[in-house]
């Protein structure tokens, strides 16, 4: 990965173009922020398969018992491009589990400059059981240190259905290695409003997470769990959110 001034300039230009594109897309309202979601890295490991199962459940309040689960299989085609297929399943409080979407996603690494990595994410989603088709984009920003890892995902989503408002979201995480097997940190998810009104009083979740590799560094198995506390409008819907992610690298 190049650290040249040209690469850095190109990365900034592409990042601005993506951000501008996000502002021109229309999106549906996001589900409870964080439920079943991943905070994506801005780097790609070539030749590596990743199999993931992600689960989120709301506890307490009117939305208590709502669940979101996602199954994902991805492969790093090159050091810059990763492709994946995703299946999404949801359960409303008191309702049955049902498939809601199948999707193809891609992550493309733009550049590495002075410790920062930039990438773009794109997803084409086929809605199931009455859910609309959609297109989602993200700007991925990451900085890794010796023990620290900071990730920021800026999100926009466009349903292929007329009349939906433009809506934005974000996902952030900061964690630190405390041993060869364990990383501890914080994760946050939230809504940033719509093209009609930016930064309103909306839903946000923030809380501690733990990432554990049973076999230590280099182990193919990774387990992540956490408890997110509701903030702002989310406090009217739930008392908390449980997260559980399982990842296997091949």
Describe what is shown at a glance.
This protein has 250 residues and is mainly beta. It is 8% helix and 56% strand. The protein contains 1 helix and 12 strands; from the N terminus they run H-E-E-E-E-E-E-E-E-E-E-E-E.
Key terms:
mainly beta; Porin; 250 residues; 1 helix; globular; 12-stranded antiparallel β-barrel
How would you characterize this protein structure?
8% of the residues lie in helices and 56% in strands. The chain has 250 residues and is mostly beta strands. The chain has one domain: Beta Barrel (Porin), CATH 2.40.160. Residues 1-8 and 10-30 have low confidence and may be disordered.
Give helix % range.
Answer: under 10%
Oligomer: single chain
Order of helices and strands: HEEEEEEEEEEEE
Task: Spell out the CATH superfamily.
Answer: monomeric porin ompg
Structure classification: mainly beta
Number of helices: 1
Gap between N and C termini: 23 Å
Average pLDDT over all residues: 88
Question: Could you describe the largest sheet, including whether it forms a barrel?
Answer: 12 strands, antiparallel, barrel
CATH class: Mainly Beta
What is the CATH topology assignment?
A: Porin
Give me the count of strands: 12
Structural shape: globular
Architecture per CATH nomenclature, i.e. the level-2 architecture: Beta Barrel
Poorly predicted residue ranges: 1-8, 10-30
Radius of gyration: 18 Å
Query: Proportion of β residues?
Result: over 45%
- Counted up, domains total 1
Which helices and strands, and how do they pair?
Blueprint: H1 5-23, E1 49-59, E2 67-76, E3 81-91, E4 97-113, E5 116-127, E6 134-144, E7 148-159, E8 167-177, E9 182-194, E10 203-212, E11 221-232, E12 240-249
Antiparallel strand pairs: 1-2, 1-12, 2-3, 3-4, 4-5, 5-6, 6-7, 7-8, 8-9, 9-10, 10-11, 11-12
């Amino acid at each position: 990965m190049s650290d040249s001034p040209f690469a850095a300039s190109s990365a900034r230009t592409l990042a601005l173009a993506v951000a501008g594109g996000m502002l021109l897309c229309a999106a549906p309202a996001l589900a409870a922020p964080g439920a079943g979601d991943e905070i994506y890295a801005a780097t790609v490991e070539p030749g590596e398969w990743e199999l993931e199962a992600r689960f989120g459940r709301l506890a307490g309040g009117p939305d208590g018992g709502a669940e979101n689960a996602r199954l994902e299989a991805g492969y790093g085609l090159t050091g810059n491009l990763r492709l994946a297929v995703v299946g999404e399943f949801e359960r409303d409080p008191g309702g049955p589990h049902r498939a809601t979407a199948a999707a193809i996603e891609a992550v493309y690494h733009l550049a590495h400059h002075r410790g920062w990595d930039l990438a773009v994410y794109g997803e084409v989603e086929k809605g199931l059981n009455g859910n609309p088709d959609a297109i989602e984009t993200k700007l991925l920003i990451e900085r890794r240190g010796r023990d620290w890892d900071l990730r920021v995902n800026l999100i926009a989503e466009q349903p292929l259905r007329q009349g939906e408002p433009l809506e934005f979201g974000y996902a952030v995480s900061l964690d630190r290695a405390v041993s060869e097997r364990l990383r501890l940190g914080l994760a946050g998810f939230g809504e940033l409003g719509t093209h009609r009104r930016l930064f309103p009083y909306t839903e946000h979740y923030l809380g501690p997470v733990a990432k554990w590799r049973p076999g230590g560094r280099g182990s193919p198995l990774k387990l992540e769990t956490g408890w997110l506390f509701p903030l702002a409008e989310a406090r009217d819907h739930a008392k908390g959110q449980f997260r559980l992610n399982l990842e296997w690298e091949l």
